[in-house]
Amino acid sequence: MGMHTYSLYHHGVAIAHAIGADITKIGMNLTRPRPVAAGKFHPDVMAQLDAVAEKVTSVLDQVEKIGIKLAIENHTDAFSEEVLWVLDPDRSSPGGSLN
């Protein structure tokens, strides 16, 4: 992930903290192949999911240090299994579960 993107997400968390928010978010904003129903863990989507996971991971220390929550916004972009995959620290295989 480039320095610009890294700084952008950290800056967003800092703004949330500065205005007294107790939560901030990262949007998934996925682009799916068509038909959507056939796109779960699609290779085109996996690269995007990996990028979302990198965004989340990049700010975890910061949100934990300042004590705010981090939400992942999903406007029907992702299947529930894909959201769980993003949140799973061991993202070794699609379809894994959280313990």
- Counting helices, strands and paired strands, the structural category is mainly alpha
- What number of structural domains do the residues give? 1
Q: Return residue spans where pLDDT drops below 50 for at least 5 consecutive residues.
A: 95-99
Shape: elongated
Determine the strand fraction and express it as a percent band. 5-15%
Helical coverage, percent range? 40-55%
- Number of H/I helices: 3
| Multimerization state | single chain
Q: Describe the strand arrangement of the main beta sheet, using strand numbers.
A: 1-2
Helix-strand string:
HEHEH
The major beta sheet can be summarized as: 2 strands, parallel
Rg for CA atoms: 14 Å
- Report how far apart the termini are: 27 Å
Q: How many individual β-strands?
A: 2
Describe this structure in words.
This protein is mostly helical. The chain has one domain. The protein is built from 3 helices and 2 strands. The chain has helices at 3-18, 43-66, 80-87, and strands spanning 23-27, 69-73. Helix 2 links the parallel strand 1 (23-27) and strand 2 (69-73). Helix 1 (3-18) packs across helix 2 and helix 2 (43-66) packs across helix 3 (80-87). The longest helix has 24 residues, at 43-66. The chain is elongated and about 40 Å long. The model is unreliable at 95-99 (pLDDT under 50).
